[in-house]
Specification:
Largest sheet: 3 strands, antiparallel
Structural class: mainly alpha
Distance between the termini: 73 Å
Strand order of the largest sheet: 1-2-3
Helix content: 40-55%
Number of strands: 3
Oligomer: single chain
């Protein structure tokens, strides 16, 4: 049996487990073949949720999607802009992990900028109805617990993620 073992190492574990080998030989190979499966390309979803940086990115995505839904503009092409912003901020927060606390506001601003370039102002200020329509601003620009604010009246409208609800 010894001459067959090197041949079984040349392919994936499935190839060596089939064919004319005895059950004892297959059992003896298991510990050597287990590492051949190798690490997965992507960690399982449960592992990603344990990572604080990923958790902050998922939370930011959820908040912006909630605001888009509240504004009735969460269409597929716009949701793609959210994904692009989150992807960009994944790199950013990977370089500066302490910035994870600021990701909510930054993703909101990124999506707002992308929407302005492609579609127009968002979110439109509900405070200044009847005047020139303008978008709300995110304040603080780089800080924790960002809010949507009317720059014209300095009115806090809602927390980022709460456009459809109360403060």
């Amino acid at each position: 049996m010894e001459p067959k073992e090197p041949a079984s190492d040349s392919g994936p574990p499935e190839e060596g487990a089939h064919g004319g080998t005895s059950p004892d030989a297959a059992r003896d190979r298991e510990p050597r073949e287990a590492p051949r499966e190798g690490p997965r390309e992507e960690p399982p979803p449960g592992d990603r949720r344990q990572d604080p940086l990923e958790r902050s990115l998922h939370a930011a995505r959820a908040l912006i999607l909630a605001d888009l839904e509240a504004s009735d503009v969460a269409h597929a092409d716009i949701v793609s802009l959210v994904e692009e912003a989150v992807s960009h901020r994944r790199w950013w927060v990977g370089e500066w992990p302490e910035g994870a606390a600021f990701v909510d506001g930054l993703v909101a601003q990124d999506v707002q900028d992308a929407l302005l370039e492609r579609y127009g102002r968002w979110p439109v200020c509900p405070v200044c109805v009847g005047s020139d329509p303008h978008a709300l601003d995110v304040e603080p620009e780089l800080g924790e617990e960002p809010h949507w604010v009317c720059a014209a009246t300095s009115t806090v409208v809602a927390r980022v993620g709460s456009l459809g609800g109360k403060l």
